Amino acid sequence: MKSLNPIVISGKEVLPIIEGGKGVAVSxxxxxxxxxxxxxxxxxxxxxxxxxxENGDYIPQIYHGRTRRDRHEELxxxxxxxxxxxxxxxHDLSGGEGRIHMNVLWEMGGAERILHGVLEGxxxxxxxxxxxxxxxxxxxxxxxxxxxxxYPIISSARAFRALWKRAYHKFADWxxxxxxxxxxxxxxxxxxxxxxxxxxPEDPYPRVALLRKMMNxxxxxxxxxxxxxxxxxxxxxxxWLDNPEIGPITFQFGTRPLLTKESPISDAWKAKLGTLKExxxxxxxxxxxxxxxxAVRNDFLDxxxxxxxxxxxxxxxxxxxxxxxxxxxxxxxEVYLTATDKAHADKWVADGFNSxxxxxxxxxxxxxxxxxxxxxxxxxxxxxxxxxCSFSNWAENEKGNTGRKADPxxxxxxxxxxxxxxxxxxxxxxxxxxxxxAYRFATDPFYKNGFIPTMKxxxxxxxxxx
Length: 466
Fold this sequence. Notes:
The protein is an alpha/beta fold.
């Protein structure tokens, strides 16, 4: 295999490997500090990051505000405090090695305020910002204000062109790299567009080559591209190295650091990773963000899938084939379905799914009474963790809502992500993000007999290319 040469990232020569930032509390100062200490670029998650009391115990993010706006302010305060905490831990553990980046989602609630708050409170501790989940135009200005590098996460050359033309060309000096996150291979939220078929994966090579060609035309020949999604053994990517069509390249690992000693996920989650088979990662569109996302298929996702399958279109007055009356709810409200859908609805009700919930798309879904109560409670308890949420209809605007009905086909993403990371065993009934290569834990000899490496051992293994 070709040699893996060091690369300059955020002003320092480091190993050409980056720890993926991941979501709520899954990439922490503990795991990131260990990755940086091994010589790579570490990325802790700045999404609702954890903070601790004077005894070092985790402080649960409990909300007391009576309104969504009040709870949203609490969420922002938690986010700033947690981000500063994780930055400090990562810095201390790194021992001055590697680089420390912070990952944020542009569509998370209070993204700009949290970024400013953490960077102000952790000056000198963070060397770069990675940011995706949306079109983060203003992240360049924020990075320039604090004189650190920024790394936009994109899934197509077209997306980067839009960011460059609108804002990034003004702050080119602080552009540290461009993260190409493959929408068919990466875990978490993915940047699939309406013109791309989620069921027909495309080869990342021509997509990245097109991105490099565009960057070269912009005078960004020297700026590295970060390949994210599906990276497991670097020898699989040897043809990308020293390749003028690809240019300066480094690789991001999001899934593999999950199964390390320093990873904060539960033992049950780590054990689950070792049992996955190819195809067990489910690309779905249930997220309240509206984005496609990839996660481990389990009871949680199966319930969401079944919930959407128990769905019929309705009208309030008989029109065309929608001429069959159907009554639901305590007040026996009447709508009209097709005769075929009426038969389906009657069967679902007979099976115990006798609570009907309307969606924003003039359809209704059928769930059991306990699930309906859970959905309603989660919607009421919303704390504005996203800039806009299809599930609760919250939006970070003057009105405080999206202007559409809340969508019961989705879920409270803050609730499940907090639960899965802070629960010791509840992996079947929560969302577990993972890249599509996670099944390789079960077949890679490095993990034979249930071996769980330290972060240093993982970095050393990755650098062998095998």
